[in-house]
Structures are given as C-alpha cells and as structure tokens.
Amino acid sequence: MANTLYPESYYAASANAVPARPALQDDVETDVCVIGAGYTGLSSALFLLENGFRVTVLEAAKVGFGASGRNGGQIVNSYSRDIDVIERTVGPQQAQLLGHMAFEGSRIIRERVAKYNIQCDLKDGGVFAALSAKQMGHLESQKRLWERFGHTQLELLDQRRIREVVACDQYVGGMLDMSGGHIHPLNLALGEAAAVESLGGAIYEQSPAVRIERGANPVVHTPQGKVRAKFIIVAGNAYLGNLVPELAAKSMPCGTQVITTEPLGDELAKNLLPQDYCVEDCNYLLDYYRLTGDKRLIFGGGVVYGARDPANIEAIIRPKMLKAFPQLKDVKIDYAWTGNFLLTLSRLPQVGRLGNNIYYSQGCSGHGVTYTHLAGKVLAEALRGQAERFDAFADLPHYPFPGGQLLRTPFAALGAWYYGLRDRYGF
C-alpha cells in the first residue's frame, strides 16, 4: 500500500496541530467533488464555498501530502514560462488576460491568510539572483515586462545592493519583488483546509479516487464510498496517477530535493539573509533558499525526471548550499526530503474540461504556489458560468511528450542536461 502519512520533512515535523479526518465510507451527494486536497483543490473549494456551492474534497493521503506540503515555500509571481513567451505563442489578446492574472495568486494567498487567520510564517519579499551579466539583462527585461502588466513592486539590485540582501558573493545583481515572499507551505494548506471546513465543506482523507463514472451526473468512487456530484474538479497534479488517462500523456512527474539545516541562531541567520527575503537564482536548473520561522535555512534544487526518489538527497543538495554559503560547512542537516511536481512540455499549466462537468488544472511545472491559488479562483468562476479567464488558460496549446510515456523521461533529462550546460557556460 502507498505511504499515506506525511513524508519525514521539516514541514511535517513543525506542522500546526489539526484534527484527524475520516476516510469516506458512505455515499455522499454534493454540488462539486474536488479530487485532491492540495492548493489547487483547497483554493477551488474555498472559492466555491464562498459562492454558495456544496463541496466535498477527496484526498488520497493527507491534506497537503503532495507538492503543496513539501515545496520550497516561496511565493513567486508569474508562470514557469513568462508572459513574453505566452505572447509569442498565443498572441497579444490572450496574453493580455494571462498577463494580468500572473500576479493575482500572491494576492489571493495574502487575502486567505488574513481572512482566515492562517498561521504559516508569511514573510514579504523575494529575490531573483543573477549569476552573470546575461542573467542580469534578463531581469532588466523581466522588470519592464512585468511593469507593462501593472506589477510595480520591483527593484533592480546592483552588486552592492544584493550583498546587503544575501551574504553570497556569487551574484552580480538581482531583482527584489516585494509582492513575492515565503510561507510554511504545509501550514498554509492546513489553514486553508480548516477554512474549507469552517464554511461547511467536507474533507475526507485516506480516500483516493479510484474511478470516475462519467456522464450527466458523474460519480467518483473511493475504496469504501462514492460521491455523486454535479461537477468534478480534478486537482491531483503529480499525484493523480492514471485516474484520467487523457491527462497523463501530456505531463510528467518530476522530483525536486530540499534540505533543512539545524537552527542557525539569530546572528548567523541575520548575517545570511538580513531582511529575511527568500532567494532563487536565475539558472534554468535553479537553486532556491530561505529562512524558516525558527531560523533554519531551507535549501532546494535539482530535478529528478520521472520522479524517482534519489538515495541520498543531502549528498545532492548540500554541495549546492555550501557553494552559496561556505560559512555553513560545519552546520548539521536535520531534514532532507523529495517531492514531485508536474512538468508539461510547454512548462505552462494545463487547464480544461472533459465533457460538460469535469474540470481540471495541473502541470504548474515547478511554479505552483501562486498559480494554484489563482487556478482555484478561475475554476470556481468557470463553474459559475464566467469562463473568459478559464478559457484563456484552456486555449493554451499542449502536446504529448515525444516518444510517449516510455521515452518522456530520457527526453526531458536530455533537455535538462543541455540547459545545465547553458547555466554552467553561459551560452
């Protein structure tokens, strides 16, 4: 049987106390059945409940078990492919809609935290750090691009300024986004789940969806029960398996690795990141890091295509951490874990509808914390008959990975090897 308890991680060890939630053992009737209690599912459920829908959420393991409870905890705006790439793909009109939505997810997170008093160590400020003049040039054009869509909380950092923000001498400059920031991601998910229940929504854990009976009144079957609904939202992302075969061909689960140090103490923590911003570098295969509420350093990076769990996560990530911060050479690593995100060939999210009543959003491609919160709102709007924003995502073109499921992992790994060379040699 699959492991349905939280994997050992810093987040699971420091999670807020929550009630045990039952497995579904009955036949239930509802307006909307949401499959997956990660950010996409919880965000959808909250927006729907706030608009008067009856909602039942099915979770195969525990709330936030997947990427929502294991990620780097960084609030990063836009998508995994930026708005200029979208513009070239779909034209200015659709890009205009998607561009204005690119900064909404971070606002939704802050609104949720304030409205439902969610304790998740929310901190403002995220930094993109440039390792070369070429990357700095990209940040300058990214700032102009984002400002075109009304996003103004941005500041370019020269070499002197970035040293004031992060004690790492690798960077030639960077960009600070004050509407970015960081959170304890599992506690955000747990707080959103409590908000769902406070509005009358039901969440069943240890209740995997094993089969969807499609039709005018769809039914979702679990091992011991079923949910009859008017609508279904499929929000399983990298943990969906083959429940909806149409979605599996165009996406691939990928693993990313994270380590967490022992507590560093106030002085060392303040020395590393004086303003407590989170940081990600501008490499294609990027590293990212931040401080926790109790002054540990969380450091992540690396991608494992096909989502195998590497044998020794610390051996992969610790050298990256020490390259950025050699001053941590004697610091102990208390936690190391991996989690899967869902990659698409275009690196843009896949949003759509199967038949008239099964909606889905998946494939954030490593950019999920903000996008999933926006997706919940967009899916809820579509169910209420306001589909303009939903259609802007649904019309994005998506293609299967070359070579089908058998060859998608080696192809993607080959692409990553090429981009790794580009990161290293700057071409």
UniProtKB/TrEMBL annotation:
InterPro entries attached to this UniProt entry: FAD-dep_OxRdtase (IPR006076), FAD/NAD-bd_sf (IPR036188)
Any one GO CC term of the record: cytoplasm
Domain FAD dependent oxidoreductase stretches: 31-381
Keywords: Oxidoreductase
Annotated Pfam families: DAO
One MF annotation (Gene Ontology) recorded for this entry: oxidoreductase activity
EC number: 1.4.3.-
Keyword Protein biosynthesis: no
Enzyme class: oxidoreductase
Protein name: Gamma-glutamylputrescine oxidoreductase
Gene: puuB_1
